[in-house]
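Objective 1.3, modelling of assemblies. Example input:
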Amino acid sequence: MSATPILSLSGVKTDIAQYHVLHDVSFDVPEGGVHVLLGRNGAGKTTTLRTIMGLWQARAGTIRFRGQEITAAHTTEIARMGIAYVPENMGIFGGLTVEENMRLASHDGTFDPDRLSRIHTLFPAMKQFWAKPAGALSGGQKQMLAISRAIIERRDLILIDEPTKGLAPAIIAAMIEAFREIATESTILLVEQNFNFARSLGRGVTVIDDGRVAHDGQMDALADDSALQTRLLSLSLDQHQ
Amino acid sequence: MERLQQTVARMGGVNLLPVAVALAALIAIGAPATWVTLTVAGLAMGMMIFLMASGLSLVFGLMDVLNFGHSAFISFGAFIAASTLALLSGWVAADSLLYNLLALGIAISAAGLFGLVAGWFFEVVIVKPVYQDHLRQILITMGALIVAEQLILAIWGGSPLSVPRPAFLQGSWLIGDTTIEIYRVFAFLLGFVAFLGLRYTLKSTRIGLLIRAGVENREMVESLGFRIDRLFAGVFMVGSALAAIGGAMWAGYETLITPDLGAEMMVLVFIVVIIGGLGSIEGSLLGALLVGLTGNYVGFLAPKLALASNMILMMVILLWRPQGLRPAVRT
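Predicted structure (tokens):
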């Protein structure tokens, strides 16, 4: 792990309309592996990802990517710097085919055969439904497409919002393997409610509560401390299994 | 019933509606020659309305922008084409197909070019500051429309303006008992070529792919690294140019135009956009053909209902399909 974080948030405050959602969010995401963002519903996890991506503007604070400030940058600039975003609703273009969805994510509209082959190995359904409308895919296949789209080109950082929501356990297991493989190349900042899924992937963890960072540390430490889990997340891992 | 629905869907589904309306009209009218004349008139009218409506539909779909000023481009297109044809009256009346085509081509190009430039100005100065604010969009584009109408009055005056038709588009073909006006066939073909061009652009080019994606989910397109606002400016310019070309064609169709031409057409344009479904070129074509055909058939069969026919059509379609006939998929 390199000493310099790939992403750094410092005192970030974000408002949505008249509501103050993020009050003071500060944490670092080290380069490599999976860093998990945990928290109760409405704690501000999605808002944090959207603020990083420039989809909502921070009112105060700074966000740095590889040391460069991106707090006020336009979403397109942030994307072009090498940050991909997989939103909670997956952001699939249902009227386009799987191929067209993937082609949009490729900078020049062409595919690197090696990367495409890697995606087809990770998610065989993408090859099978290549020419089908994305709107006709199942929930799990749409999630696979959303992630495939994020890795069709090399990205330094991938922001993923609740990828396991509503998915069957078998698909979640396949997703864990895929994320481990993706994390060998890119850093993943993962928002997740499924603690088991988060624990199996996460190296570092930040817990957000009421728009503030309530805990920042290593995932192993949190996984071993059920009292801390209960305090931070109102759950214990034993109950959650 | 389910099997019938599946069979209809396989045969083309809602795409068959204009054919169904035409067949129903054939039975109601009874006289095939009259029916052919009305059908050609309806198709030509539909294609011209399609030109005017397609850009507005994409603008609606792509950026949720309610542009009530769209009719200004229709009016300006009509008046610019009329003035250009008047300036080139020698070529317009010449007994030479080449000169006729040149005059017509220059007139349509002038209208289209105006639409492009004015569309760019309109988007940057008037629409851009009110993105995401529907109420202000309505107010400011209505205001811009009033200014545009006053400009037309100031430049061309309030009297009706006569529009000369190129010699090769005058007259009719007589096939048996059927009379087919040449201009209507030309208008239909021009509209159809525009539709094919738009469809090719949207389905087979990268820009088209981005526009289709943007209509569905513009935030995600930006998250993939593309500036949707620049794309929107381009769509707005092309949509305005198409409206101006539609206005130019309508001017030749009517041969006498007034400054409120655009406002009159705008009612039909909005009906087409709504019944076709927002953001869909195919939907706009379908809606425009239905409006054109219904207007002509009802005008012949029940003249007193002619004015209300398109409103009734819109109500029936919205009761059946509240999202329109072929809306773009939105996520």
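The interface with chain B takes residues 53, 55, 74-76, 79-80, 84-85, 87, 89, 91-96, 100, 103-105, 107, 109, 135, 149 of chain A (CB under 8 Å).
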